[in-house]
Amino acid sequence: MLAPKKTKFRRAHKGRIHGLSRSATSLNFGSFGLKATEPGRVTARQIESARRAITRHMKRLGRIWIRIFPDVPVSVKPAEVRMGGGKGSPEFWVARVKPGRIMFEIDGVPVDLAKRAFELASAKLPVTTRFIARFSEEN
Q: For the sheet containing 40-43, what is the strand order?
């Protein structure tokens, strides 16, 4: 699973995901992409699950690019612990995704195969998504 090797700080604030994505809003690598249409936090497990769904459906044909990386630690306190006593320990990693962000790109496969692969991947993700293709860039 994806996780940073090293971070500046061990724990992070939850924060809010405001506005639209300013980076990774157009296809840079592949011919087809999966674009987020709402803000949310995508965990490393969800990214890996979506990647596996795409890879399995494409039968290891073509090439895949993952355009998001889980770099925000989410800390959780143990069950039935009283208030106070500090912040919990980091449990998992998430990627903050803004609307308009391209999360996955693929190339070297037909349109129908790419569309179905992204439908399967979208079912694994907590944000609503939309299929985009290079030849119809107005999406």
A: 40-43, 89-97, 72-76
Hunting for tokens 């699950």 — which residue is that? 49
Using one digit for the tens of pLDDT, what is the confidence trace for 37-93? 999 999 999 999 999 999 999 998 999 999 999 999 999 999 999 999 999 999 999
Write the DSSP assignment of 96-112 as a string of letters: EE-TT-EEEEEESS-HH
Q: Determine the Cα–Cα distance for residues 14 and 19; give it in Å rounded to an integer.
A: 16
Residue 95 has which token pair?
């990627």
For residues 90 and 10, is the Cβ–Cβ distance under 8 A? yes
The residue count for the chain: 139
Structural domain boundaries of the chain?
40-78+87-136
Its pTM surpasses 0.70:
yes
In DSSP terms, which residues pair with 66 in a beta bridge?
A: 104
95 forms beta bridges with 42
Q: What's the CATH fold of domain 40-78+87-136?
A: Aldehyde Oxidoreductase; domain 3 (3.90.1170)
Gyration radius (Cα) of the chain, Å: 17
Lookup: tokens for 114: 């790419």
Q: Which residues pair with 97 in a beta bridge?
A: 40
